[in-house]
């Protein structure tokens, strides 16, 4: 049994928090839901920002959530070097909050995507891929309308040079710059990804590749 407790931040409109909690529970980890309106993280060892539609995605995804009281605490948590994982809407929140570079915009074909995709593990120095192998192919589902990653060309060059591109689409489904599906902070402890690993942790769901993401995350607590 792993002693650590992982905090799962819940915003109005989050809808993947129970999926994440279920996967982590099956891995022997305690979880604690943290309401966005509270600043106290409760002494957790790691933080997950799950998917959904924080605050209804009004204005733009993550733009309102970044001002929630919990995010100041998440920023301090990340600054201390501890692991933070943002999935889909959680990734959007992390970019809006300035904890990760770049931004997510509407898919290039202006259609909502819900499908399984293949991803290449680009970097293994992140908290979400440390147990994977560079070049490894993972099958995970995506479920988004605004998952098209973009950034300034100088930022892109820094990401590539600093090994901050964590995951890349084999076949780019949404127009993301350089087929980027996930990035990390320079230190590697903060990771954002558009695919949903929590939906690929059971053979009945078609893939268990998502377990590698969570096992890496837990190994870095």
Sequence of strands across the biggest β-sheet: 2-1-3-4-11-10-9-6-7
Domain module count? 1
Helix fraction by DSSP (H/I, runs of at least 4): 10-25%
Give the CATH superfamily.
Class I glutamine amidotransferase (GATase) domain
Helix and strand sequence: EHEEHEHEEEEHEEEH
Rg (C-alpha, Å): 15 Å
CATH secondary-structure class: Alpha Beta
Folded structure, characterized:
This protein is α/β, with parallel strands linked by helices and 221 residues long. It has 5 helices and 11 strands. It is globular. The relative contact order is 0.18.
Task: Describe what is shown at a glance.
Helices cover 22% and strands 26% of the residues. It is α/β, with parallel strands linked by helices. The strands form two sheets. A nine-stranded mixed beta sheet has the order 2-1-3-4-11-10-9-6-7, with helices on both faces.
How is this fold's topology laid out?
Blueprint: E1 5-10, H1 17-26, E2 30-35, E3 46-49, H2 69-79, E4 84-87, H3 89-96, E5 103-105, E6 113-121, E7 137-144, E8 148-150, H4 153-161, E9 165-169, E10 180-184, E11 190-193, H5 210-219
Parallel strand pairs: 1-2, 1-3, 3-4, 4-11
Antiparallel strand pairs: 5-8, 6-7, 6-9, 9-10, 10-11
Question: Which short descriptors sum up this protein?
Answer:
single chain, 221 residues, alpha/beta, nine-stranded mixed beta sheet, two-stranded antiparallel sheet, 5 helices, 26% strand
